[in-house]
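Quick log. Single chain, no ligands specified.
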Amino acid sequence: MTPSLSRLNQHIRTLGLLLLTLFLFACGSKSDLHEGRSADELYLEAKAAVTKGNYSKAAQMFSQLQTRYPFGRYTEQAQLEMAFAQYRLEQPDQAIATLDRFVKTYPAHPNIDYALYLKGLVNFEENYGFLSKIFPSRVRDRDQTIARQSFNDFNELLRRFPDSQYTPDARQRMVYLKNNLAGYEIEVAQYYMRRTAYIAAANRARYVLETYPGTPDTSVALQILHQAYTALEMQELADSSLRVLAMNFPDDPYVTGQSQKKTWLSYLWPFD
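-> predicted structure:
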């Protein structure tokens, strides 16, 4: 190796070491940014960041607070506050993981009702977030796994804390979830009807009636049952489905349409 090439290699190594030293110094400076702060100071500054909407800074500081003071008086609340910051940062997986850890670690915490509510809210927003505001009619077409989880989270809140301040909002969201979950099942049942998979369609419709009673799609579920059982030549079940539909929804177009065809239902009320 020539002397000039050797010196060049030495300069490259020196420059590399210098850059590595600068990088490590920068990282160390960043990690020591809040070095020496008390738990009170870290918590208050993190709360201030939440108030200002700086959720990224808040999440970072709540995390540091838990790391430096794992047994301090702010540790429990900091974990809950960090979950909220992660929720506002649209980090649902991290928020759910933090909330699950909080509920498991502190089952008797006075704010456990809020943890359950926030968990339901995170799942609710993930399933019915930005896109649902743009395409509300397509919400029921999406996979409803997260929506079911949200419903279960809110239901757990209502079961354990019926008098919680978060219960009224959770109950309203559950009505919305219930209606959309029923609507999704109806979409699937109608798909099966188009594919002449009548048993599968009937099972879906019956599931709606059993699991989500009282939803706007109840009448549609009964119609599907009547059509599916008729196609399967299960006339007794078909007649029963139509009878229930007529008793509960006498003005439904499906009922009046069937009456015009002079089926047995036309004789239930011969005074029109």
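The chain is about 75% helix and 0% strand.
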